[in-house]
């Protein structure tokens, strides 16, 4: 089994083979052990520089990447578009090339436009990690979700995972579908008709518009938030949040009616009381905080494996 990735960048799950995914998860196991030590730092990326370039707001993903980089002893540069020359009309490529001129080896990019990470990978020499591009993909979230499922069950193959909520606008959903299916899981997408794209069934997943049916079917329920920022600031695909919560919100009463244990996940941030009640988000059935913890180990694994092909001067 190969110990090197079959790609120089992490642009999306679609570019990874099953062997690539399993290598990342195995590597994350080692870094999870490192993070449990009193000294939670290794010199794996010493003398390399990573730039976190975020054109969209982020808390969990940005902090997770930054912590992963520092645990690997990398030099870290953080860039925020809100206080940058992009506000003066500078292009994405000009911005990144100016940063790369300062001898940056890896770029972690979050951008509002789908395909931005692919564009940079084709037009720069740095290794690119996609930290979310529009509603396209969020590969490290899918990898940490798969890792968390495997940690909980000891496997991913053969499990039934329901992804519930705003599928239409969710990069997390698409990356999860691709990752979970490559690892042998069955996937169901559940939500209002208006929030599930018409082509979704072509991905080899089940479709349901009944949350109770989805919960009875699945072993894991990954609850997604409604992305109001991609709906013009208010509900544009259903009558009201109250109606959405009645039909697709998961609370203790609904959970107890299932009659079996279902593991609850959420990529964050949680709209408490909308897609998920606080008592369930903080319950023993939830592995949401484990997802956050595992995110650091998985991102350490990704950065470590991508940096393996670089020498200490940053040349490919």
TL;DR of this structure?
The chain is of the alpha/beta class.
Q: What's the CATH first level of the largest domain?
A: Alpha Beta
Oligomer: single chain
- Share of helical residues: 25-40%
What name is given to the CATH topology of the largest domain? Rossmann fold
**Mind telling me the CATH superfamily name of the largest domain?**
Aspartate/ornithine carbamoyltransferase
Strand content: 5-15%
Highlighted features:
single chain; 316 residues; alpha/beta; Rossmann fold; 2 domains; four-stranded parallel beta sheet; 11 helices; 9 strands; 38% helix; globular
Task: Report on this structure.
This protein is of the alpha/beta class. The protein has 2 domains: about 140 residues, Rossmann fold (3-Layer(aba) Sandwich); about 150 residues, Aspartate/ornithine carbamoyltransferase (Rossmann fold, 3-Layer(aba) Sandwich), CATH 3.40.50.1370. It is built from 11 helices and 9 strands. A 5-stranded parallel beta sheet has the order 7-6-5-8-9, with helices on both faces. Strands 2-1-3-4 form a 4-stranded parallel beta sheet, sandwiched between helices. Helix 2 packs across helix 11 and helix 5 crosses helix 6.
Topology:
Elements: H1 18-35, E1 49-54, H2 60-71, E2 75-80, H3 92-100, E3 106-111, H4 116-123, E4 127-133, H5 139-153, E5 160-164, H6 171-182, E6 186-190, E7 206-208, H7 211-217, E8 220-223, H8 241-248, H9 252-258, E9 263-265, H10 278-281, H11 288-307
Parallel strand pairs: 1-2, 1-3, 3-4, 5-6, 5-8, 6-7, 8-9
Helix pairs in contact: 1-5, 1-11, 2-11, 5-6, 5-11
């Amino acid at each position: 089994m190969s110990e090197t990735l079959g790609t120089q960048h992490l642009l999306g799950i679609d570019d990874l083979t099953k062997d690539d995914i399993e290598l990342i998860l195995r590597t994350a196991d080692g870094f999870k052990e490192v993070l449990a030590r009193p000294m939670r730092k290794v010199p794996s990326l010493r003398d390399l520089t990573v730039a976190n370039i975020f054109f969209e707001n982020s808390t969990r993903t940005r902090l997770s990447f930054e912590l992963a980089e520092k645990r690997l002893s990398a030099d870290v540069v953080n860039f925020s578009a809100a206080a940058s020359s992009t506000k003066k009309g500078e292009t994405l490529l000009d911005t990144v090339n100016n940063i790369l001129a300062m001898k940056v080896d890896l770029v972690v990019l979050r951008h509002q436009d789908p395909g931005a990470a692919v564009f940079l990978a084709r037009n720069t020499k740095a290794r690119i990690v996609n930290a979310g591009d529009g509603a396209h993909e969020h590969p490290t979230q899918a990898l940490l979700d798969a890792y968390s499922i495997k940690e909980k069950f000891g496997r991913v193959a053969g499990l039934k995972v329901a992804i519930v909520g705003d599928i239409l606008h969710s990069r997390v959903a698409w990356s999860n579908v691709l990752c979970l299916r490559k690892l042998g899981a069955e996937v169901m997408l559940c939500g209002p008709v208006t929030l599930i794209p018409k082509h979704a069934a072509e991905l080899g997943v089940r479709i349901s518009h009944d949350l109770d049916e989805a919960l009875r079917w699945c072993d894991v329920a990954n609850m997604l938030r409604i992305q109001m920022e991609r709906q013009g600031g208010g509900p544009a695909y259903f009558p009201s949040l109250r109606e959405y919560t009645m039909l697709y919100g998961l609370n203790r009463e609904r959970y107890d009616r299932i009659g079996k244990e279902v593991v609850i996940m959420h990529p964050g941030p949680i709209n408490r009381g909308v897609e998920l009640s606080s008592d369930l988000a903080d319950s023993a059935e939830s592995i949401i905080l484990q997802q956050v913890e595992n995110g650091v180990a998985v991102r350490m694994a990704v950065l470590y494996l991508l940096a393996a092909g670089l020498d200490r001067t940053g040349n490919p």
